[in-house]
Specification:
- This protein has 319 residues and is an alpha/beta fold.
- The protein has 7 helices and 11 strands.
- The protein has a single domain, classed as Alpha/Beta hydrolase fold, catalytic domain (Rossmann fold, 3-Layer(aba) Sandwich), CATH 3.40.50.1820.
- Strands 1, 2, 3, 4, 5, 6, 7, 8, 9, 10 and 11 form an 11-stranded mixed β-sheet that branches.
- The longest helix has 21 residues.
- The chain is globular and about 50 Å long.
């Protein structure tokens, strides 16, 4: 699988530097449709009810206030159980940055297909930045996620069998952490420039799409490979890939080394994975932060959605 942009210059940043952000625009609550929830889905408690608010919402997390943005399809039908997708921002960035720029293509590719959520990580006292997975911030952000997920399932019609997580950098680390701690609850995990340092005991084997920049100096390629290997072992995949991993890597390396370099994303699929536990590994040469290929390539959202929408429904669950 290859996505390339021969005319693009990879020295261009993926997103603008931190600065003022536009406010999320709210939309009116939707009316209840007369049809029944979609067949084959596991509808949440919010199905058949008027939709909750659209735009920025908040929830109390201990002594803090957690902020998150909800995006619904324009033709949202409260009787249709939609996929539910989370995208987590990178360190020092925000939920608005992720939706508007940093998480390239996620909003554009999925906005009419799924209920989308962008959370703002909680900041502990004394923190100089805003991230997800460090020891001092981990517990509060895990609690925050649980509260948001519960609120979403209560206020919107989502398919509890099609919940998937994506994230960039620190947000990719957090997606990996959730995919380890609660892997039996998610259809797919899609970390971008993420790692899984010192993983705890993992449960479940969600499908995984692991994306990493070939020259990433912030979270190096080998750390992304370690996260990939965690998914491979859990999913029972062999080491064989289509196309061969070495050929794909050489392809992206060549694109990166051209002058000017060519912005390319290429992927391999692992063989022998358990049903519903597909594993895809992608490398890219998009410039990213500091022109280091660190970050979310602009085609990332479409690549993630193409992977997720092709996954089979999970095996039937007991009543």
């Amino acid at each position: 699988m290859l996505v390339s942009c021969a005319a693009c210059n990879s020295t261009a940043p993926l997103a603008p530097p931190p600065g003022p952000h536009r406010s999320a625009v709210g939309e009116p609550r939707q009316s209840i449709a007369a049809s029944k929830p979609s067949v084959g889905a596991k509808p949440s408690k919010g199905c058949g009810k008027p939709a909750g608010p659209v735009g920025e919402r908040q929830v109390a997390v201990g002594s803090q206030t957690g902020l998150y943005i909800v995006s619904l399809p324009k033709a949202y039908d409260p009787a249709k159980a939609y996929p539910l997708g989370f995208a987590f921002h990178g360190r020092t960035r925000s939920h608005k940055d992720c939706q508007e720029a940093d998480c390239g293509g996620f909003q554009q590719a999925l906005s009419e297909e799924a209920v989308l959520v962008y959370m703002q990580s909680l900041r502990e006292p004394g923190d100089t930045g805003s991230g997800w997975e460090r020891p001092a911030e981990r517990a509060s952000n895990l609690q925050f996620f649980e509260l948001v997920l519960g609120q979403l399932e209560a206020d919107y019609c989502v398919d509890e069998q099609r919940i998937f997580l994506a994230g960039s950098s620190s947000g990719g680390n957090f997606a990996n952490l959730l995919g380890c701690l609660h892997g039996d609850r998610f259809l797919a995990i899609a970390p971008v420039s993420g790692s899984l340092k010192d993983p705890p005991s993992c449960v479940g084997a969600p499908a995984a799409l692991v994306i990493h920049g070939i020259d990433d100096s912030h979270i190096t390629l080998d750390r992304g490979e370690q996260a990939r290997e965690n998914y491979r072992r859990r999913s029972g995949c062999s080491e064989a890939t289509t196309p061969p991993l070495s050929e794909m890597h050489a392809q992206v390396r060549s694109a990166r080394d051209q002058k000017p370099s060519v912005e390319t994303l290429a992927c391999v699929d692992y063989a022998g994975c358990a049903k519903g536990s597909a594993l895809r590994w992608c490398e890219h040469s998009y410039g990213g932060w500091d022109n280091s290929t660190h970050g979310w390539p602009t085609v990332g959202g479409q690549v993630i959605w193409d992977f997720v929408k092709a996954l089979p429904l999970p095996l039937p669950q007991p009543p």
